[in-house]
Task: inverse folding
């Protein structure tokens, strides 16, 4: 077995319930809404993760603000020395809630935006007034003294406005902006041909971002998540399977990456029945694609194998039916034509009305 | 080479870590780390000594003099090293000037 690394980052997906219906949501299609971990189970898991070497925790979902014990969990994470980040839609981030989160020791809040103006933003989120609610959430976070970062998922309907998005984030006082090209898993895979931008759109956006990034050095950091369908080499997904990150989903299943749940024929272990340490070091799922020994050709003899780790297992499974194949985003993959075909087939004239919106799982509380 | 005076415009400004970063010791390695939104920056000893003092309470000049006293080195000897370090951190958006 290859050297076992320690996890640095821990993504706690507290719930898959969400007030939004984004058509690119990475949550699983099918999820039973009634099996969420309890507060005690999360606290135990957070403590174990810190003991294993985790330094940072992201509270995510779904919408993590739907969990009434969020403040308690943040406090417990801070108690064991973790850096805490809240990854939220902003819906439900009232003034009171923002103050409570700040008092609990939250280090940073990341709010997602769908666009810079409400017509497109609300249409993508599938909820009226969501954009206005998010703007209010930003104000509430700032009032409470919480550092703010923004996340915007890019697709054919908003990518032409990247310079507008950057200006928008700057004006809201964000210290970091994540511009994430849609990754085609989960709901996004179902909407791939409608969401996928053209190559000309992707190239223009990349140029704008690199130009603006220089101007903003020291003020706002821009993280640009590359569109791997348009590249020649795959992304170093999660910096390698079971190498730096661990995700625990609402049911307590520990995953090497948030979308790994949808890989067929891979069994995951839960933190209800096992320690995080055992799962990280011993479990079959975390060892399955760890290191380089599992790799087939062309990865096995590739000089880049320690750089991109063969790309994304979820994408290999989704597109080729076998998670151990080379990521088809790599132009050395025998399946690369699947990605090229998808780029060629994108439905450039399809409107928003052709999107399949994310359905909610489990009961939706009022917020 | 290193016996520069602090004529930088920064000399009388007070460096402070920005709000979203936290300086702490990595319990696994015992090494100092700087934690920010999604990054972990491993620090060497001198970086840690500098950043520990970037709390907005002292000017850059005071900070440098303090380090020179602590390490018993001549005045001006650490100027270049500290200036470079704080500039690098400012560029990354991890340090602000107040």
Result:
């Amino acid at each position: 077995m290859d050297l076992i690394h320690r996890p640095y980052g821990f993504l706690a997906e507290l719930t898959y319930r969400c007030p939004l219906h984004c058509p690119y949501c990475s949550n699983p299609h099918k999820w039973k809404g009634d099996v969420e971990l309890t507060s005690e189970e999360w606290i135990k898991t957070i403590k174990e993760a810190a003991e294993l070497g985790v330094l940072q925790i992201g509270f995510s979902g779904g919408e993590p603000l739907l969990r009434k014990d969020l403040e308690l969990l943040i406090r417990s994470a801070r108690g064991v020395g973790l850096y805490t980040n809240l990854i939220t839609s902003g819906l439900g981030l009232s003034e009171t809630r923002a103050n409570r989160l700040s008092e609990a020791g939250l280090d940073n809040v990341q709010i997602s935006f769908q666009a810079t103006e409400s017509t497109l933003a609300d249409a993508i989120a599938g909820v009226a007034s969501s954009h206005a609610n998010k703007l209010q959430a930003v104000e509430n976070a700032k009032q409470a003294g919480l550092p703010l970062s923004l996340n915007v998922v890019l697709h054919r309907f908003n990518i032409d406005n990247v310079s507008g998005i950057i200006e928008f984030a700057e004006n809201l006082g964000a210290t970091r902006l994540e511009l994430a090209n849609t990754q085609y898993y989960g709901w996004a895979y179902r909407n791939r041909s409608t969401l996928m931008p053209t190559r000309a759109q992707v190239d223009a956006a990349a140029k704008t971002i690199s130009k603006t990034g220089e101007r903003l050095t020291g003020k706002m950091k821009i993280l640009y998540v590359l569109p791997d369908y348009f590249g020649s080499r795959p992304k170093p997904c999660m910096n390698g399977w079971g190498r730096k990150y661990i995700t625990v989903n609402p049911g307590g299943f520990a995953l090497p990456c948030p979308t790994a749940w949808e890989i067929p024929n891979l069994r995951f272990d839960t933190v209800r029945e096992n320690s995080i340490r055992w799962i990280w070091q011993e479990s079959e799922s975390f060892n399955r694609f760890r290191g380089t020994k599992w790799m087939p050709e062309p990865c096995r003899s590739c000089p880049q194998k320690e750089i991109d780790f063969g790309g994304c297992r979820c994408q290999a499974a989704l597109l080729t039916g076998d998670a151990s194949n080379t990521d088809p985003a790599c132009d050395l993959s025998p399946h690369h034509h699947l990605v090229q075909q998808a780029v060629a087939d994108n439905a450039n004239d399809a409107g928003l009305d052709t999107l399949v919106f994310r359905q909610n799982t489990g009961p939706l509380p009022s917020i | 080479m290193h016996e520069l005076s602090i004529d930088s415009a920064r000399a009388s400004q007070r460096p402070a870590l920005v709000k979203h970063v936290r300086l702490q010791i990595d319990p696994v390695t015992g090494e100092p780390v700087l934690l920010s939104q999604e990054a972990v920056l491993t620090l060497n000893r001198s970086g840690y000594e500098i950043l520990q003092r970037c709390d907005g309470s002292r000017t850059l000049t005071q900070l440098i003099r303090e380090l020179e006293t602590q390490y018993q080195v001549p005045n001006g000897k650490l100027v270049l090293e500290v200036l470079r370090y704080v500039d690098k951190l400012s560029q990354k958006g991890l340090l602000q000037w107040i």
Remarks:
- Chain A is about 35% helix and 15% strand.
- Residues 362-367 of chain A have pLDDT under 50 and may be disordered.
- The interface with chain B takes residues 6, 8-9, 50, 53, 55-56, 58, 81, 83, 85, 107-108, 110, 145, 147, 149, 175-176, 217-221, 223 of chain A (CB under 8 Å).
- The first helix of chain A runs from residue 39 to 52.
